[in-house]
Write a structure and sequence with these properties.
There is one protein chain. By secondary structure, this protein is α/β, with parallel strands linked by helices. It folds into two domains: 4-244, Spore Coat Polysaccharide Biosynthesis Protein SpsA, Chain A (Alpha-Beta Complex), CATH 3.90.550; 250-312. Helices cover 49% and strands 11% of the residues. It contains eleven helices and seven strands. The chain has a seven-stranded mixed sheet with strand order 3-2-1-4-6-5-7, sandwiched between helices. The longest helix has 30 residues, at 251-280.
Length: 324
């Protein structure tokens, strides 16, 4: 990592605010001198978090932006992104205002980006196996499920902890994102990964400790799991179409449809003949069994080959680095 004191890049921090009056002022005070601008986005907070900051904060780096209507955490972050891009910031860091994200880690998040090793960095609370014991078990289980779905839909198979909101992005990459299309609510973090993959951006996990105190998360995994599943499936099919058929063609472009056709035929044909055998009390001929088993096995092998190819093609070359 570079010595950040010698780097001339301008760093911005975006803080979406909704019911964080107990922590926001202390959080801002902890943000180090490496940061040039701090954008506090009051997402129509009923506790008037933005007004609290504007009245009591004397840090000249702070700008408070107010939403007349609640846009969700994703909408608030996109507002902060636009403000940072308008001010021509180089790297944009996003942290939550609830005090669970340590501002002292900001150099760890911007370092890989400034070094040209990443376009986007994301916190990972699961890196240290000892520390994750502090995470509530239901949240740990929910995050594991969401992580797998995110790998599947985004194509970033080497990432974990998809709901972690501690992130950083280079402005040249943020400019390429369709900010108006990114999900406004809690799905925005995983939706960001899907959008970044279509750009072939490099995303790097940054280890961080899990931190929980008395505040209650607004994200209820049991309530959003079904919604997330539908959106993940939508993004998966979009990603496959964009990356394997619209922009490029490879052997994997053939393996996927052939695998689906053969596997589906084998399973359906086998199940149908099994039902007939049970109904009439007659054993299925060997030829019928083979006609079911072979397509099933061949289809499964093709699907696994596609999956292996997809995992091997995780973006490795930074857009920012190439632009330089």
């Amino acid at each position: 990592m570079k010595n950040l004191d010698s780097v001339s890049s301008s760093i911005a921090v975006v803080i979406p605010c909704y019911r964080v009056t107990q922590h926001i002022l202390e959080l801002i005070a902890l943000i180090g001198p490496e940061v040039s601008k701090i954008y506090v986005v009051d997402d129509s907070c009923p506790d008037k978090s933005g007004e609290l900051v504007r009245t009591n904060c004397v840090d000249k780096r702070v700008s408070v932006i107010f939403h007349k209507q609640n846009m969700g955490v994703g909408g608030a972050v996109m507002t902060g992104y636009r403000a940072a891009l308008d001010d021509e910031m180089d790297v944009i860091v996003k942290i939550d205002g609830d005090g669970q994200m340590d501002p002292a880690l900001i150099p760890d998040f911007i370092g890989p980006i400034l070094d040209g090793h990443a376009d986007y960095t994301k916190g990972n609370r699961f890196f240290n196996l000892e520390e994750i014991q502090a995470m509530p078990k239901i949240r740990l289980f929910g995050n594991a499920i969401l992580s797998f779905m995110t790998k599947f839909s985004s194509g970033y198979w080497d990432l974990f902890d998809p709901t972690n909101g501690y992130t950083a992005i280079h402005s040249s990459v943020a400019k390429l994102l369709p900010l108006k299309k990114i999900s406004n609510r809690y799905f925005f973090e995983t939706d960001m990964l899907f959008r970044l993959n279509t750009l072939r951006a490099v995303v790097v996990d940054v280890p961080m400790d899990a931190k929980y105190s008395e505040e209650i998360s607004n994200l209820k995994i049991s309530k959003i799991l079904g919604e997330f599943l539908v959106k993940h499936m939508r993004n998966f099919f979009k990603r496959i179409f964009y990356n394997y058929y619209l922009r490029d063609m490879s052997v994997a472009s053939l393996e996927l449809p052939l695998g689906i056709i053969l596997f589906s035929f084998g399973v359906i044909f086998g199940c149908w003949n099994w039902v007939l055998s049970v109904h009439f009390g007659v054993s299925a001929p060997v030829g019928t069994i083979m006609l079911s088993a072979l397509p099933t096995l061949m289809g499964l092998q093709l699907l696994l080959a596609f999956l292996a190819y997809d995992i091997s093609t995780v973006p490795k070359f930074s857009i920012y680095k190439k632009d330089r």
